[in-house]
Design a protein that fits this description.
disordered N terminus, alpha/beta, Nucleotidyltransferase, domain 5, 9 helices
């Protein structure tokens, strides 16, 4: 894995970054993380660009990622730079399927209102995503959640392809490890030539942690994201990481894949890249803030 070194001075809006990855990409992802976690000065539009009816007269790009673990709403400006966003843990989707439609709509309405209050204007449309291979009925369900929450669905894109809107990989495999599923997109000459999706993700980390420690799923979720506990728990979750590796091997077979790019919040777990690389024998890279790569790419699809 290539570990970028980032020093972010939020007051000055300056990023000092040393990395073997594309520095522009690393800066974009560092800024995204800062915006999403409230460490970047709020963006305020020119008042003249807001109509009396609270419509923004400029161009923005909005993406909604209804994930198994986290739901993310992200807003980009006309130059595809993040200006606002919010995310929240919520189990409204399971293995790529919307299992709590009412809860999903209520959550998205709440997040939409929060961002509108922050920006000072209304958000009318957004793009969203789906895991590769899910039934068309479930893809439509995702669009229906947006519509019911007051957002026209301006586009739908599979999750790994959304990630490549950001990473812009020419050749390799993008592996999106979400809360419930692992999605794969194989890229050749800058084009997606194959996609697949299988169950296994961050939820499975929590399940094995809960079982090994005789605690509740909710307690396991807290342990999983606690930096002080992650090294101790690595042997517990390693089999799940290796399962992700086995999924990758299965789907890259027959393709000339030399590099794997891991995205999704699960991939932020320390050691994930090393385990996958050892298991697959392929160079494995985790970009800065992997949780936000796919939501950022979804917004770019709008």
């Amino acid at each position: 894995m290539h570990h970028p070194e980032c020093r972010i001075d939020i007051r000055k809006g300056v990023f000092e970054i040393t990395t073997t990855m594309n520095p522009d990409l690393t800066e974009l992802l560092a800024r995204t993380d800062a915006v999403m976690n409230g460490r970047f000065a709020p963006w305020h539009p020119d008042p003249e660009m807001i109509s009396p009816s609270k419509e923004y007269l400029g161009t923005i790009h909005v993406g909604v990622d209804l994930g198994t673990a986290y739901t993310v709403l992200m807003v980009l400006d006309e130059n595809y730079q993040p200006i606002a966003g919010t995310y929240q843990f919520a189990q409204i989707v399971r293995d790529g399927l919307v299992v709590d439609f009412v809860g999903a709509v209520a959550l998205l309405e709440k997040m939409k209102k929060k961002i509108e209050n922050q920006l000072g204007f209304s958000i009318r449309s957004a793009a969203s995503s789906f895991p590769p291979g899910v039934p068309q009925a479930e893809v439509r369900a995702t669009a229906n959640v947006l519509q019911a929450a007051g957002l026209d669905c301006s586009g739908l894109i599979d999750e790994p392809s959304a990630a490549n809107n950001v990473l812009k990989i020419n050749d390799g495999a993008i592996v999106d490890v979400g809360g419930g599923t692992t999605g794969i997109a194989i890229i050749e000459n800058g084009k997606v030539v194959y996609t697949a999706d299988e169950p296994t993700g961050g939820t499975h980390f929590s399940l094995v942690i809960a079982g090994a420690n005789n605690i509740t799923f909710e307690q396991a979720e807290e342990l999983k994201i606690n930096p002080a506990e992650q090294a101790r728990l690595l042997p517990v979750v390693r089999p799940v990481m290796e399962k992700v590796g086995s999924i990758i091997i299965k789907h890259v077979s027959g393709y000339k894949v030399k590099k794997i790019y891991l995205v999704g919040g699960t991939c932020a777990y320390p050691g994930m890249d090393k385990v996958v690389q050892e298991y697959t024998g392929l160079e494995t890279i985790v970009p800065v803030s992997p949780l936000f790569v796919t939501p950022l790419g979804i917004a770019m699809h709008n």
